[in-house]
Amino acid sequence: MGFLVLEGLRAGYAGGKGDVLADVSLQVARGEVVGLIGPSGSGKSSLLRALVGLLPPRAGRVTLDGRPVDYGSRASLRAARDRFAIVFQQYNLFQNMTALRNVAIAPTLVKKRPAAEVEAEARALLAKVGLAGKVDAYPDELSGGQQQRVAIARALALRPDILLLDEVTSALDPELVTEVLDSIRALQRDGMTMLVVSHEMAFIREVATKVVFMDAGRVVESGPPAQVFDAPRSPRLRDFTARILRH
Ligand SMILES: Nc1ncnc2c1ncn2[C@@H]1O[C@H](COP(=O)(O)OP(=O)(O)O)[C@@H](O)[C@H]1O
Ligand SMILES: [Mg+2]
Fold this sequence. Notes:
binds adenosine-5'-diphosphate, binds magnesium ion, Rossmann fold, 10 strands, six-stranded mixed β-sheet, alpha/beta, globular, four-stranded antiparallel β-sheet
């Protein structure tokens, strides 16, 4: 039994021309790092958005830790959102707040947790992503890579069961990518369950326990990194890896 189980998940945008997730089934074990790959428009972001309830599923089932996630009602949606945290390509930090405040604000204001406890945890999380010395810095005093690491710490401060990372290095200058990937490696060593969408194929190959290849809203193929990258079975995956590994 998987920690996160998706069964026949379908979803589409209101006013959109149909389902962007056609029939997604997927199992994720606790502590597993799933690398989501696939061509642009294949539904990777939509899948993560569906999990956090930003794109309401039209059919199918999501089960987390043995309990069904109900996206139907406001209350259960809020409960579902508590289980996942998502980090986007654009980190969108609050510009008028320090790194520490950016990480601490949601747990304090939204979750109403004790300020002192949240602050201690926020400091620990910033240290975890290599920013112990930057707790009092404002976003405009930080590099893109540092800001993205604050965004990752901010997501972790919500104590998610599963962390969803959507192309978190895509907006960064190449020399800043490594430090963000290092932070993700540290989370993997801690046993954080993650779904990672990335074009950094070498990184996916290294950290992912399982790679899922999506195309046209479906999971076309999945398996251990070596199998997916070195012995792709479907023509679409073969074509994708050939194109992506060429550059
Ligand atoms: N806000 C939106 N409204 C309507 N359609 C969208 C929206 N966002 C994405 N789509 C469509 O959903 C499909 C999947 O997109 P997306 O999940 O962003 O793919 P990926 O992340 O793999 O590039 C695409 O056809 C895209 O055009
Ligand atoms: Mg995307």
